Amino acid sequence: MASTVWKGYISFGLVSVPVRLFAAAREEHVSFNQIHSECGGRIKQQIFCPQCDRVVERSELQKGYEVEKDVYVTVNSDELKTLEAESSDVMEIQQFVSLDEVDPIYFQTSYYSAAEDSGKRAYNLLFRGMTREKLAAIARVTLSGREQVVLIRPYDQGLLLHTLYYPAEVREVGEYGHDTASEVPAQEVALAEKFMESLRAPFEPEQFQDNYKEQVLALIETKRAGATPRPGSEPGPSRRQGGIKLQSACGFAQRGHGFNAAHAFHR
Prior knowledge:
Elements: E1 6-12, E2 15-23, E3 47-49, E4 54-56, E5 63-68, E6 71-75, H1 77-81, E7 90-98, E8 107-115, H2 120-133, E9 135-143, E10 146-155, E11 158-164, H3 186-198, H4 211-224, H5 246-254
Parallel strand pairs: 1-7
Antiparallel strand pairs: 1-2, 2-8, 3-4, 5-6, 7-9, 8-11, 9-10, 10-11
Helix pairs in contact: 3-5
């Protein structure tokens, strides 16, 4: 059984829906420990203070915020704890918005919600109403001592929650957004659209696999069995070399040749 992340009520108006939250996704990767190559022992990391020239225990540590070069304001855990939002079991909906108004760049962490027995009818009404109107709800909730803004939206046969980044947490990058200002000939745009149409397909996430993870696990099993791993006869496909030769294809079309998807790909 999945572990509950939060338990409380989704509240709007005079309606309260008792729910539980469960983590909807987590990153999976192969984890390694650091091993000393000479003896095979696992490395133990220690915390070293160069000013005192000695190893220190975790109980001696405190947090410090650098306000100037090498100048820190220190705070302790008790001071920070007084600033945490009070624990609450109410997730209060602030407003309903059109789902397409919220850019996915603000999505942070996803949670499934499941109604308690006493709230199944109200949960179903909320789900069906939001689905029909294509709405999402913006709410506030306290998770792990921090007040979070969340988006609630219909997904499959339930309500999915996304914690949202605050606007100040969404980075601005100076190099971004300057590559689409110049005009492009309509013929090249039309050709690009044909390429896109030739690759168009329903999104089926099951067809995508973490090949690197599988190869790493296979390597580990091979070595565990005492066999010597053999390098692959051919390197994996290069992302730099693969894909669509769009500029070459555009030039090909401009020389009077018809469109052929075969010319778009590296062989």
